[in-house]
Each structure stands twice: as structure tokens, then as C-alpha cells.
Design goal:
Length: 226
């Protein structure tokens, strides 16, 4: 029996304390009901689902506006700044597993950006020539030297703007002719060596047959003399 509301002096129950206890119990019961977790895991279902198609009307203040899309934007993929630096440290090896000496760049080609070496610049220009259809002009903006992280044109290699003169074209033509001449001489020497080997392989059996014929003739003459 709860005697918290009993007054032992008068021997009676205090009604004020009884009402307070009732209110407190009612308040605790409401709090327990509100804080009870919902363990129902069923997904909510829309009760007003319609089996008919409901058209949607677009309301706009500018009915003549049209959404324009740039097809070139979807084709060009974003590039990371200074991605050419990933090509540094890559070397080509010949059949003897020796490093092939890289070509020397003209003095007019100068690198731009932090840590741009001649090997990285050569790889970047070669990559641009094989993967891009745009002309290679270098970084045309002069501000790229001050802050390359902001003004860098990712579609161009990491080099300053340069011009190809007629003298450069003439020197390149002479170099190509020299290389072609060396290649022609090497092919001719290889072909002559191959022909000589074939002639040796064919001539050896013929000489052997001639020697055998001469021996047989000599034996035949000796038999006739006897």
C-alpha cells in the first residue's frame, strides 16, 4: 500500500498529494507512449494511386526559352593539371635492353610549369600530336608563367608559345633525307649478305657433285686401261 500521501498526525489521506501523484503518473504514461519506437518495417504505400495516366503541365514565365547544349562539352573530358608529369621517368629500351637515347628538343621549345623537364616536355608534345586534332601552339597566355595553376591551357602541352619557321622545316627535311639514306644503305647491305649466303648454300652441293663426277670418270678410265 502506498503511504506517501498519508498524514500520520491527523490520520487522514492528503487529497492534494493524491491529485499530484495522479497527474504525474498520467504525464509519465504519455511520455512513454510518445517515446515508444515503431518497429514496423513495411514500406509506406500510397493510398490514392491512380490507374490512369496523369499528364503534367509545365508552367513557365518564359515559354520561348530553349535549353541549349554544347556537344563539344560532352566530348571533351576534363584533364588534370600537370598530368604530363606522370610521363616523367618513362624510358624506351631497344632489343639489347639498353635505354634509347632521347632526341634533343629545339631551343625554341621551353617548358612551363613547376618541375617541367625536357623529357617530360618531349612526352607531352608527342602525346598531343597523337591524341589531339588541334594545332600545337603552346601556352599562348603570358600570365601562365606567373600562375600556371590558374591560367594553364590543358589542351596544349607545357611549353611556351613558339613559331615554326621555314628554316626549321628545311632542317627537318634534311634530317629526314639523311635518315632515309642510312636506312637504304642498311637494307641494301642486308640484302647483299642474304644473297651471298644463298649462293654459298647452293654452290656447295654443285662443287660436291662435280668432284664425284670427276672421280667416277677417273675410275672408268682406270678400268678401261686394265
Amino acid at each position: 500500500m502506498d503511504l506517501s500521501t498519508f498524514d500520520f498526525r491527523t490520520g487522514k489521506m492528503l487529497m492534494s498529494k493524491i491529485n499530484k501523484n495522479r497527474q504525474r503518473m498520467r504525464y509519465d504514461g504519455l511520455n512513454q507512449a510518445k517515446g515508444k519506437p515503431d518497429l514496423n518495417t513495411a514500406l509506406p504505400v500510397r493510398q490514392t494511386a491512380s490507374i490512369f495516366k496523369q499528364p503534367v503541365t509545365k508552367v513557365t514565365n518564359h515559354p520561348t526559352n530553349k535549353v541549349k547544349s554544347d556537344p563539344q562539352k560532352a566530348v571533351d573530358q576534363p584533364r588534370q593539371l600537370f598530368w604530363e608529369k606522370k610521363l616523367s621517368g618513362l624510358n624506351a629500351f631497344d632489343i639489347a635492353e639498353e635505354i634509347v637515347k632521347t632526341m634533343e628538343l629545339p631551343k625554341g621549345l621551353q617548358g612551363v610549369g613547376p618541375g617541367c623537364t625536357d623529357e617530360t616536355l618531349l612526352s607531352a608534345i608527342a602525346s598531343a600530336l597523337h591524341t589531339s586534332t588541334m594545332p600545337i601552339t603552346g601556352q599562348l597566355s603570358a600570365a601562365v608563367e606567373k600562375n600556371p595553376g590558374v591560367w594553364l591551357n590543358t589542351s596544349q602541352p607545357l611549353c611556351k608559345a613558339f613559331m615554326v619557321t621555314d628554316e626549321d622545316i628545311r632542317k627537318q627535311e634534311e634530317l629526314v633525307q639523311q635518315v632515309r639514306k642510312k636506312l637504304e644503305e642498311a637494307l641494301m647491305a642486308d640484302m647483299l649478305a642474304h644473297v651471298e649466303e644463298i649462293s654459298k648454300d647452293v654452290g656447295a652441293p654443285l662443287e660436291k657433285d662435280l668432284e664425284e663426277d670427276e672421280e667416277e670418270d677417273a675410275r672408268g678410265n682406270e678400268a678401261e686401261d686394265l
